[in-house]
Write a structure and sequence with these properties.
By secondary structure, this protein is α+β, with helices and mostly antiparallel strands. It is 35% helix and 19% strand. It has 19 helices and 21 strands. The chain has helices spanning 23-34, 39-53, 90-95, 114-125, 130-143, 149-157, 159-163, 166-172, 188-200, 203-206, 209-219, 227-231, 259-269, 282-302, 313-316, 319-328, 435-447, 453-458, 477-485; strands at 11-13, 17-20, 63-69, 76-80, 145-146, 184-185, 236-238, 241-245, 248-252, 348-355, 361-369, 376-377, 384-385, 414-419, 422-429, 462-465, 468-471, 491-492, 500-506, 511-516, 523-526. It has a seven-stranded antiparallel β-sheet. It has a seven-stranded antiparallel β-sheet with strand order 7-4-3-11-10-2-21, covered by helices on one side. The chain has a three-stranded mixed β-sheet with strand order 16-17-18. Strand 14 and strand 15 form a beta hairpin. Helix 1 (23-34) packs antiparallel against helix 2 (39-53), helix 2 (39-53) packs parallel to helix 5 and helix 14 (282-302) crosses helix 19 (477-485). The chain is globular.
């Protein structure tokens, strides 16, 4: 690899590594590896810690997806997305005059899937007791944690949202003010709930007193949720999908998540010689924008929960489809008519990459969907509930139309890259709609342009979807004018686009190379 210019350093290790958005969570995962746990154990411990120390982004009231790969074995994918209440339908909400489920609507709260997914992963693939992996998070919730720089900013931006609820305000806005950098914060009701889960297992969340508390809190606001909606929920092992990219193989979770969209982009980009152009060239940004616009239009029209309607991955990734899509791309001009379905923006997610001494790689993502999720906190247990139901359509006949016990189209997608049948990178990108496009930009930076993993993460990003074309401000002026000449209408992104955390596995040398995103307070720790 070429010499890396000065900047945030690549993390280097040999025995194990954890990369995620908060130093305290990365350390919790690393402590588990050092104590004899494997990559699954470490990922769950880090996820639990993040549920306490990054409440704007994640929590036990959210959803989870995971990919894991052990040496010599095929990848495993777990869908930990919760479903809508059985009694809730699109017809009902249309009759109430709704055209879209708003972020603050109580019907946006679907069953949280994360906890049962964590417990299943540990039971099937971990080494340590599930309850023990929650102990560091319990301590942080009880004794307090220090607010990091990005967390303080995000918290302040959501102050009005959490102040609107008495329960949320008591926990997150004591004294009526958001915390400042370095302030100490705790969440005693959540600590009590986590301790119960550690002692009794996830069933206490899904059919015990925590479930009763969640349901009672939601029903008072008009939700259709009942105890059985939580009690019947189980995560689902699913067959991961993959496609070739420049001699590697990119693995993703299948629908109901949008991992297939990343694969669709990879199929197209694999036929385009991006390395013929500079990484900050007009040609590269134009091609990746057009590929993304085609893929997002396909997603918005068809992606759904395959338990309710067929979502044919073989067709999406077929040579016939590939030829059809590539024929739409003009090297000199932006294509018209690729309008996405209206959907709320959502950018609040945490991602965790872990590799252990045995070469197990885990790629795990957890989310509340929106800043502080729905803003609703269960009365007694302090569980901050997500609003993932915003991802449903209310359009009659749409594949992603809301239905009882259906999972919404999901934006959170972990990824794995393999070479010669073995994992070489566990990586993920946060940022809602941005995630497939972001994954391919990071992947292309490494594979097409030979960037170090940290350099690939730090490189300027873009998001093209329909007529929207956001670009981070650190690109040269010639790029803006060149894109306009091709018919694009780029705008400067108001905030950095997403985050990325990744671990590269150098099998030949036995070296782990980690990158973590400074767009949040990320850290890659190894030993």
């Amino acid at each position: 690899m070429p010499l890396k210019p000065p900047g945030r350093p690549v993390s280097v290790a040999s025995q194990g590594m954890v990369a995620t958005s908060n130093p305290q969570a990365a350390l919790a995962g690393l402590d588990v590896l050092r104590a004899g746990g494997n990559a699954v154990d470490a990922a769950v411990a880090a996820a639990a810690m993040l549920a306490v120390v990054e409440p704007t982004q994640t929590g036990i009231g959210g959803d989870c997806f995971a990919l894991l790969k052990q040496r010599g074995l095929p990848p495993v994918a777990l869908n930990g997305a919760g479903w809508a209440p059985r009694a809730l339908t699109a017809e009902r909400l249309r009759a109430e005059g709704l055209q879209q489920i708003a972020a603050d609507n109580v019907h946006a709260v679907t069953v949280p899937g994360a906890l049962r997914a964590w417990e299943r992963l540990v039971a099937d693939h971990g080494r340590l007791a599930f309850g023990d992996l929650l102990r560091p998070a319990i301590a942080a919730a009880e004794q307090g944690y220090r607010v990091t720089e990005r967390l303080a900013r995000d918290w302040a931006l959501s102050a009005a949202k959490v102040s609107a609820s008495t329960q949320a305000s008591a926990i997150f806005m004591p004294g009526g003010q958001p915390p400042q950098l370095g302030d100490l914060r705790s969440n005693l009701p959540l600590a009590t709930a986590l301790r119960a889960i550690a002692d009794q297992g996830a069933d206490v969340f899904y059919q015990g007193w925590i479930a009763e508390d969640i349901v009672a809190s939601l029903q008072r606001a008009g939700s259709a949720m009942v105890i059985d909606d939580l009690a019947d929920y189980q995560p689902e092992y699913v067959e991961p999908l993959s496609t070739a990219y420049r001699g590697y193989r990119l693995w993703e979770c299948p629908p109901s998540g949008q991992g297939i969209v990343a694969l669709q982009m990879a199929v197209m980009l694999d036929r385009l010689n991006l390395s013929a152009w500079d990484p900050l060239s007009v040609e590269r940004f134009h091609l990746q924008a057009e590929v993304a616009r085609i893929a997002y239009a396909q997603r918005d029209a068809q992606l759904c929960d395959p338990r309710f309607q067929r979502c044919d991955a073989e067709d999406w990734l077929s040579p016939q489809r590939e030829a059809q899509w590539l024929a739409q791309i003009d090297l000199d001009r932006r294509q018209d008519g690729l309008q996405p379905t209206p959907a709320p923006e959502h950018k609040d997610t945490v991602y965790i990459s872990v590799v252990d001494a045995d070469g197990m790689a885990v790629s795990l993502i957890n989310s509340l969907f929106d800043d502080f999720g729905s803003g609703r906190v269960s009365d007694q247990s302090g569980v901050l509930l997500h609003n993932r139901g915003c991802g449903f359509s209310l359009e009659a006949g749409h594949p992603n139309a809301l239905a009882g016990r259906k999972r919404p189209m999901h934006t959170i997608i972990p990824a794995l890259l393999a070479e010669g049948g073995e994992a070489v990178m566990a990586f993920g990108v946060t940022g809602g709609h941005f995630q497939p496009a972001g994954q391919l930009q990071v992947l292309s930076n490494i594979v097409d342009y030979g960037m170090f993993i940290q350099q690939a993460i730090d490189h300027p990003r873009m998001l093209a979807r329909g007529d929207q074309f956001e670009i981070e401000r650190t690109v040269p002026e010639a790029l803006w004018s060149g894109l306009r000449a091709k018919g694009h209408l780029p705008v400067a992104a108001a905030h950095p686009l997403g985050t990325c955390h990744a671990i590269w596995i150098d099998q030949a040398r036995g070296v782990l190379l980690g990158g973590s995103d400074g767009r949040r307070d990320g850290l890659a720790l190894g030993y």
